[in-house]
Amino acid sequence: MRVAIPITNNVLSEHFDYCDQFTIYMLKGGEIMKEELLIIPAKEPELIPDILEDKGITDVIANKITTHTIAILNTKKMNVFIGVSGKYPKEIIQDFLNGCLSTKDNTNETII
Fold first, then answer.
1. pTM exceeding the 0.85 threshold for the entire prediction
2. How many CA atoms lie within 13 A of 36 on its CB side?
3. pLDDT class for 112, splitting at 50, 70, 90?
């Protein structure tokens, strides 16, 4: 399993499409096997789903995201967890691993 978390300034990005980096975790047997940083090319947010697919991402954890982007990620066989807020990626992935990730519907038709 490979999980991507969008980050800005080393914390969870408020908007999926506006992040400049992702922390990617490779998980196996309920443990973090590897952590890496993925930098997104400047001003190319429309490429994010393709970039994540190329990296073999299976799950995305985000705060705010458009329903359109969720649909694209889902067609690429990625699970999307939304409504997570205000945490560092390491805390988020630990909550995910422990089955206590707090989510809520935080979709937008457009991000302003």
1. yes
2. 13
3. very low
d(CA 19, CA 6): 6
Instruction: Give bridge partners of residue 36 from the DSSP assignment.
Output: 24
Read off φ and ψ for residue 83, nearest 5 degrees. 90, 10
Backbone angles phi, psi at 93, to 5 degrees: -70, -30
Element (DSSP H or E) covering residue 49: helix 48-54
Q: Is 24 part of any domain? A: no
- Give the mean pLDDT of 28-48: 88
Is the pLDDT at 105 greater than 70? The verdict is no
Q: Which amino acid is at 46?
A: E
The neighbouring-strand residues paired with 79 are 59
Rg of the Cα atoms in the chain: 13
Whether 31 is in a domain gets the answer no
Please report whether residue 97 resides in a domain. Answer: yes
| Residue 57 placed within a domain | no
Of 67, 18, 25, 26, the residue nearest 44 (C-alpha)? 18
**CA atoms within 13 A of residue 5's CA, in its CB half-sphere:** 27
